[in-house]
Design a protein that fits this description.
This protein is α+β, with helices and mostly antiparallel strands. It has two domains: 36 residues, no CATH class; 88 residues, Immunoglobulins (Immunoglobulin-like, Sandwich), CATH 2.60.40.10. The chain is 12% helix and 27% strand. Strands 3, 4, 6, 7 and 8 form a five-stranded antiparallel sheet that branches. The longest helix has 15 residues. It is elongated, with a radius of gyration of 24 Å. 12% of the residues are buried.
């Protein structure tokens, strides 16, 4: 019986790291790789040996996948759209829901709730909902609810997001 070894992968994705952190990590790798007998002529196979891999200065990426937690009980994710004045919202699927409703409005001064809401019906939550024509620089509050057995659930807690 053979066992399949998992390839060790270096941690990457430095988009959110500070410049100083990236320089520090690169300097550590360069220092640890220079003259390291385990890496005479990179790239090399680390033979799935974590000790050899770590001697390079690279940090191993996690092999366990963690599910991203939703932002609220009904809203999974909020992000910027492709263009200025767009916000994209992903709604979390609710068991036995036949449709959904999402509402949004501009947050008032001092973070007060929106004075008025715009409602949008959503039939399918597999695709994100794109909100266009929003004011760049304005902060919007979003809430969602589901229609389950001919009755709506309560609105989710408000989540706020600034339009760019």
């Amino acid at each position: 019986m053979s066992t399949q070894e998992k390839q060790i992968r270096p941690l990457d994705g430095f988009a959110r790291a500070s410049d100083a952190d990236v320089v520090s990590r690169a300097t550590l790798v360069q220092t640890n790789m220079t003259g390291n007998a385990n890496f005479p002529a990179p790239p090399v196979d680390c033979k799935e040996d974590m000790a050899i891999f770590k001697s390079s200065g690279f940090e191993p990426a996690s092999t366990t996948k963690t599910a991203t937690q939703p932002l609220s009980e009904k809203i999974r994710k909020i992000g910027h759209g492709a263009n200025s004045g767009q916000i994209v919202v992903w709604i979390r699927s609710i068991p036995k829901a036949s449709s959904y409703e999402i509402r949004y409005g501009v947050v008032g001064a001092g973070g007060t709730p929106p004075a008025s809401w715009t409602n949008q019906l959503v039939a399918n939550v597999k695709a994100p909902i794109n909100f266009s024509g929003l004011t760049p620089g304005a902060t919007y509050a979003f809430q969602a609810r589901a229609l389950v057995q001919d009755a709506y659930t309560d609105w989710s807690d408000s989540l706020t997001f600034m339009s760019t």
